[in-house]
Amino acid sequence: MSIAENLTEISSSLPQGVTLVAVSKTKPASDIQEAYDWGQRVFGENKIQEMASKYEELPKDIEWHMIGHVQTNKIKYMAPFVDMVHGCDRFKVLRELNKEAQKNHRVISCLLQVQIAKEETKFGFSKEEVIDFANSEEAQSLNNLKISGLMGMATFTDDQDQIQSEFTALQEIYKEVVDMGVFPDFSTLSMGMSGDYELAISCGSNMVRIGSSLFGARNYK
Ligand SMILES: *Cc1c(COP(=O)(O)O)cnc(C)c1O
Fold first, then answer.
1. Per the structure, how many domains does the chain have?
2. 220 within a domain of the structure (yes/no)
3. Residue 221 lies in a domain
4. Which site in 1, 37, 47, 188 is 20 to 30 Å from 131, CA atoms measured?
5. Are 146 and 97 in contact (CB under 8 A)?
6. CA–CA separation, 126 and 164 (whole Å)
7. Element of type H or E holding 168
């Protein structure tokens, strides 16, 4: 199937209110252009420099989402154009992103990444850190960030019950922060990838990040 056919199939399967982030990491700009021509506008990348070079090359009304682990010394390369950063997984990233957004006279949407997987290799805040941050004065002082929601990745496993319990745990933290009422734009729950997005949606996700089901398997040489 072509990229356009995959987009038609997947986007028609998503309930209303669920945003599709087309994860184009490692894929050539021509693949993104094909998805763009179909009508897709939101793309996700996990390497800042790769995203920046694609931004240069491609139409300027694309909404770029950084979904990967952020190296703070590279934030300056994306601050001029990135729309949403899903991988805010430590305070240093939030502070540096706020500083660079300010330099560019921009407001950047951020998702707090929460560690829900039982894997040491995954990044993210604990539930307690998220709640403490939401209660902090610092959270309100980051004037060039819009704290827009949470992002999480489930454990890489076939155990559907485990994935479901991790997604449900994230949804509960999300609801708790919504109920605190401290962030006016807090309305995004980013969870679900090619293999688990339907389950994620059933657990309340309203933003799915789908790569291989749209663009085909990635080839990391
Ligand atoms: C690569 C990646 C995805 C997409 O994964 P697929 O399984 O190809 O859909 C989603 N989220 C993050 C954070 C990723 O790094």
1. 1
2. no
3. no
4. 47
5. no
6. 18
7. helix 160-180
Q: Please, what is the end-to-end C-alpha distance for the chain in angstroms? A: 24
Q: Is residue 157 part of a domain?
A: yes
**Which atom of ligand 1 lies at the shortest distance from residue 209's CA?**
10
Question: Which tens digit of pLDDT belongs to each residue from 102-111?
Answer: 999 999 999 9
Distance of CA 17 from the midpoint of ligand 1 (Å): 20
Provide the CATH number for the domain around residue 180. Answer: 3.20.20.10
The closest alpha carbon to 173, from 110, 122, 118, 125, belongs to 125
Among 25, 42, 45, 67, name the best residue to mutate to test ligand 1's pocket (greatest count of ligand atoms within 8 A of Cβ).
Answer: 67
Residues with CB under 6 A from ligand 1: 23, 25, 46, 67-68, 153, 193-195, 209-213
CA of 178 to the centre of ligand 1 (A): 25
Q: Looking at the CA of residue 197, tell me the nearest atom of ligand 1.
A: 9
Which ligand 1 atom lies nearest to the CA of residue 23? 4
What pTM value is reported for the model?
A: 0.96
Choosing from 150, 153, 193, 208 the residue with most ligand 1 atoms within 8 A of its CB, the one to mutate for a pocket test is: 193
- Distant-in-sequence, close-in-space partners of 49: CB < 8 Å, separation ≥ 6: 74, 77
pLDDT band, very low/low/confident/very high, at 178 (cuts 50, 70, 90): very high
Residue 168 CB coordination number (10 Å): 13
In a domain, 126, yes or no: yes
